[in-house]
User: What shape does this take?
Amino acid sequence: MPPTLPDFREIDRHLFEGWPPARIENVHGWRSALDGGVTRRPNSVWPIAWDGAALLDRAIDAVEAVYGSANLRPCFRISDAALPGNLDARLAERGYGIEGRSHVLATSMDEASARVRDGAEIVLLSEPSADWLACYESGLARESDGPIVRSIFGRIKHRHVFAAAVRGSTAVSVMLAVHTGPWVQISAVRTLPAHRRQGLAVGVMAAAAAWARRQDARGLALQVEAANAPALSLYHAAGLKRIYGYHYRAKA
Assistant: This one.
């Protein structure tokens, strides 16, 4: 049976917990996440619940006030499961533009690929090492974003591991696996440019899948931008398939 909209909302609840923001404001049931402005995921409204106590425009006004006070632009994460159902259309009417079109991919543990690149040393760490952080943070837009991302890692309450492919005692391909509910979700994926297209990320993904099996997880899940063709190729090779899409509506 294909997933339903309630299934999508339940998956989103777990995805939200895997990358926890510094602060969450409840605005009429919406989870309004606020962090340091690094990436949209912890700096956007996740409308996976709605109490209907206010007119929609008043609720949007309240969100704009919350984000304005934090010096952040209002941004909503929109999927077919967003509540209420006319939210996307109303945001568009208010001048919110679409950006960051993305997919949620998932696979059952039975279907997750176990392929490991021969000769790759894969390690699982309870805390990110200095070279793990250096690999991941090499892809951030600004050096000042590093401490903000590290604070996100420090707020993760669920079981998690920092996986890496190591060459010459240095992490050259990394990812984070977090066990939330029935899922192990994958994020913070990065491979240093000189080591790409060598199968290292596939090996790290396989190690994360093996760890997920040991947690008795039901499956793997992750979020990826629709325009990120190399990442989509990697995840499809690992057995993950698109289950639904989403985009962001952000105020100019």
